[in-house]
Amino acid sequence: MKIHATIPYRGQRFSPAESLQRSREYLKYMSRRRSLRSFSDKPVPREVIENIVLTAGAAPSGANKQPWVFCLVSDPEIKHKIREAAEKEEYENYHQRMSEEWLRDLEPFGTDWHKEFLETAPWLIVVFKKAYDLIEDKRHKNYYVNESVGLACGFLLTAIHQAGLVALTHTPSPMNFLQKILDRPENERPFLLIPVGYPPPDAEVPDISRKTLDEIAVFY
């Protein structure tokens, strides 16, 4: 069996008291993260986006296959095409595909099939999952693709928040139009459409609460 070369692990080390304090501060910081459906058109430097995506690329993945591709869209014409296609699918969702229960659950958020933010946000990050790798026209299996790409998206959202930006995990369904518009190969499937930018001065978010520790954790 081929064994990869290793390097020393130089992780951070904190005292128990420091770990507790850092965990409290990070909880407080991340608790302020919210999804926004409105964006400022203020430009975001490309290097900021590059660093955010590189952070996402540091996520763990099955057999280190890193089965993700991040398409970074700032071109107004492409954003317009994406909005048109997304609104077409969303119109069908809101008028035919979604169940009554689903529509009731969405009512508090005031959403509908109009998706202006897809053109207003300075960047769209379209995340694709690689069902398999294509190397010299040969298929190479990837492992735990959904789990791996989901983890990368978590890293991505955290990095967006860390940079002082806001985002929305948008999932127009079906999303095949993204593969066509962006001319992606057959082994890539759209996973998430994430507008990224600064919040507008008049930004508002729904007054929601998050589940308590007792509701989300079980200690053994």
Q: What would your notes on this structure say?
A:
It is a single chain. The protein is α+β, with helices and mostly antiparallel strands. The chain has a single domain, classed as NADH Oxidase, CATH 3.40.109. Helices cover 40% and strands 15% of the residues. The protein has a four-stranded antiparallel β-sheet. Strand 3 and strand 4 form a beta hairpin. Helix 2 packs across helix 6. The chain is globular. It starts with 15 loop residues before the first helix and ends with a helix.
Oligomerization: single chain
Question: What is the CATH C level class, in words?
Answer: Alpha Beta
Which class best fits the helix and strand makeup? alpha+beta
Q: Shape from CA axes?
A: globular
Which stretches are poorly predicted, pLDDT < 50 over at least 5 residues?
none
Q: Give a short account of the largest sheet.
A: 4 strands, antiparallel
Q: Which key features would you list for this structure?
A:
220 residues; alpha+beta; NADH Oxidase; four-stranded antiparallel β-sheet; two-stranded antiparallel ribbon; 8 helices
What is the compact description of this entry?
The protein has helices spanning 16-30, 46-56, 76-97, 100-106, 117-120, 145-162, 176-181, 213-216; strands spanning 68-73, 123-130, 132-135, 138-141, 166-167, 188-197. It is α+β, with helices and mostly antiparallel strands and 220 residues long. 24% of the residues are buried.
Give the topology.
Blueprint: H1 16-30, H2 46-56, E1 68-73, H3 76-97, H4 100-106, H5 117-120, E2 123-130, E3 132-135, E4 138-141, H6 145-162, E5 166-167, H7 176-181, E6 188-197, H8 213-216
Antiparallel strand pairs: 1-2, 2-6, 3-4, 5-6
Helix pairs in contact: 2-6
